[in-house]
Design goal:
This protein is of the alpha/beta class. It is 37% helix and 12% strand. It has a domain of 92 residues: Vaccinia Virus protein VP39 (Rossmann fold, 3-Layer(aba) Sandwich), CATH 3.40.50. Helix 2 crosses helix 3.
């Protein structure tokens, strides 16, 4: 079974995470690291992926860029965004990395980054292409194997700690 035969949203969710989304208090924020590099367009053009798995999505800037590339080259594909949206070690160091800490938008002690991601995807018009998967990369890898889904392109940009990157690679 190919990815074109699978509706990722319906496989993952009983209810579409984009439906009835409450945008109150949010505004577009696509700050990211290297999310607009030309390599995304080059890879999408060359590989013509039906499924891109992005490990580490932050606010969605690179996923949105890849979705734009899929549309530009008229590729009927999806971007599966795997992230906990709980932040890296820097995000939890409010003394030395205050900007990262504040960007997590804590509410009752819990980061609200996932909602920023959803808002950014909706407001860029890619909720039909980008599928959020709020879990660890290891659980996502196991789920993909269980469902016999293979990615055509994988972009690993999760935790930037050496051991975590290694686990993403072997997962």
């Amino acid at each position: 079974m190919g990815i074109e035969d699978i509706d990722l949203i319906n496989e993952l969710y009983a209810e579409n995470p984009y439906d009835n989304f409450d945008e109150n208090g949010l505004e577009l924020d696509l700050q990211g690291f290297g999310s607009n590099r030309n390599i995304f367009e080059e890879l999408v053009k060359k590989v013509r992926p039906k499924l891109i798995v992005e490990v580490g999505s932050w606010k969605g800037a690179s996923a949105i860029n890849m979705a734009k590339c899929l549309k530009k080259f008229k590729i009927d594909g999806k971007v599966l965004c795997v992230d906990t949206w709980l932040g890296s070690i820097r995000c939890w160091d409010r003394i030395n990395y205050g900007d990262f800490y504040r960007s997590m938008r804590f509410k009752n002690g819990y980061p609200q980054m996932y909602y920023q991601f959803i808002y950014n995807v909706i407001n860029n018009g890619f909720k039909d292409i980008i599928v959020p998967f709020p879990t660890t990369s290891l659980i996502a890898a196991k789920w993909l194997r269980l469902k016999k889904i293979k990615a055509d392109l994988i972009y690993i940009d999760g935790s930037h700690e050496e051991e975590d990157v290694y686990q993403d690679l072997i997962g």
